Amino acid sequence: MPNRHVLQPEGLMVPKSPYSSVITSGDLVFTAGQAPFDTAGNVVSEDFGEQTHQTLRNLSRCLQAAECGFGDVLKVTAFITDPANFPAFNEVYRQYFSEPYPARTTVIAGLLGFKVEIEAIARKPSR
Fold first, then answer.
1. Is 83 exposed, middle or buried (CB count within 10 Å of its CB: 0-12, 13-18, 19+)?
2. Could you report the per-residue pLDDT of 35-83, keeping only the tens digit for each?
3. Buried b / exposed e along 44-62 (16+ C-beta atoms within 10 A)
4. Domain 5-123 in CATH: superfamily?
5. SS3 letters for the chain?
6. Is the pTM of this model over 0.85?
7. End-to-end C-alpha distance for the chain, whole angstroms
């Protein structure tokens, strides 16, 4: 079994389901899908843009717990409920990621109670 470390980022609820928010193995960082929840576990807004901002802030907390940032992300997988929101998703996404952008897959999915979820794989920077 590879050397794995579980991290629980500050400001995120501890998952009630059987998963970890962040796992590191060596210099690799894997985040669980982050959703637009505040610290109490409530969806922040019905607005897609606000949900995307909150989801990316939560993803940032996960990356920070592993001593990473958005510039260390190699791969993003995003799930959105409505293809009509794709342009708005890209608009918000560009506020957090810059060129060269990570590899990305965006999936239209049936999410329960929110409109966007984002997970990432990153590599810790060399120290």
1. exposed
2. 999 988 899 999 999 999 999 999 999 999 999 999 999 999 999 999 9
3. beeebeebbbbbbbbbbbb
4. RutC-like (3.30.1330.40)
5. CCCCEEECCCCCCCCCCCCCCEEEECCEEEECCECCECCCCCECCCCHHHHHHHHHHHHHHHHHHCCCCHHHEEEEEEEECCHHHHHHHHHHHCCCCCCCCCEEEEEECCCCCCCEEEEEEEECCCC
6. yes
7. 26
